[in-house]
Automatic annotation (TrEMBL):
It comes from Rudanella paleaurantiibacter. InterPro entries: DUF4136. Keywords: Signal. Pfam families: DUF4136. Gene3D superfamilies: 3.30.160.670. Residues 25-180 form the DUF4136 domain. Residues 1-20 form the signal peptide. This is DUF4136 domain-containing protein.
Length: 191
């Protein structure tokens, strides 16, 4: 009977790992803004909001800025090192502790579990860190947000540098895929 209990526990643990929260991406924009007027940008980390010492570290800020730069260049926007840019792209990260609770619901009304094994209901809990990357795009002249995208999920659970680089690059790419395809194209034209 111990082997059946171990198998059941491993099954539930495997299910919890498989059900780990994925990265969720959302975005919002001002439909009144004509994006055709914008061609240049500059990227800034929002220093006041990057308070998390891990996800908001300078290493991760560089990863995010590099991924944003590649994405915007790929859409036809031109970076501006000094001088006036049409768009100011500011980003920040934050984290919070979360808990996932799962039950295997093996108990039946008659006291029998899976196939009559009779194991009681077991509840499992998993603690994890949920991270968020937020990208705000401002009209540089008015300092109004015209577009915002954000991703929420587990970004900092990679152990190797290559995996962390890829995780942040993929996250930023997922956020920016909702940004207008190229300079000179407005939101209505791509929908």
């Amino acid at each position: 009977m111990k082997i059946k209990a171990i198998i059941a526990s491993l099954f539930v643990a495997g299910t919890m790992v498989a059900c780990a929260p994925a990265v969720t991406v959302r975005y919002d924009y001002d439909p009144k803004v004509n994006v055709r007027q914008f061609a240049t940008y500059r990227i800034e980390a929002d220093r006041q909001r990057n308070a998390d010492p891990i996800v908001g570290s300078n290493l991760n800020q560089r990863r995010i800025a590099d991924a944003l730069d590649q994405s915007l260049k790929g859409r036809g926007y031109k970076p501006v090192e000094s001088g006036e840019a049409d768009l100011v792209v500011r980003f920040f990260t934050d984290s919070r502790d979360r808990q996932q609770i799962q039950s295997n619901n093996t108990m039946s009304p008659w006291g029998f579990g899976w196939g009559g094994w009779g194991y009681p209901n077991q509840v499992y809990s998993r603690q994890y860190e949920e991270n968020r990357v937020v990208v705000n795009v401002y009209d540089a002249r008015t300092n109004d947000i015209i577009w915002q995208g954000w991703a929420t999920g587990q970004l900092n659970n990679r152990r190797k540098e290559r995996e962390r680089d890829a995780a942040f690059r993929e996250t930023v790419t997922s956020i920016m895929k909702n940004f207008p395809e190229s300079a000179g194209q407005d939101y209505g034209a791509q929908r």
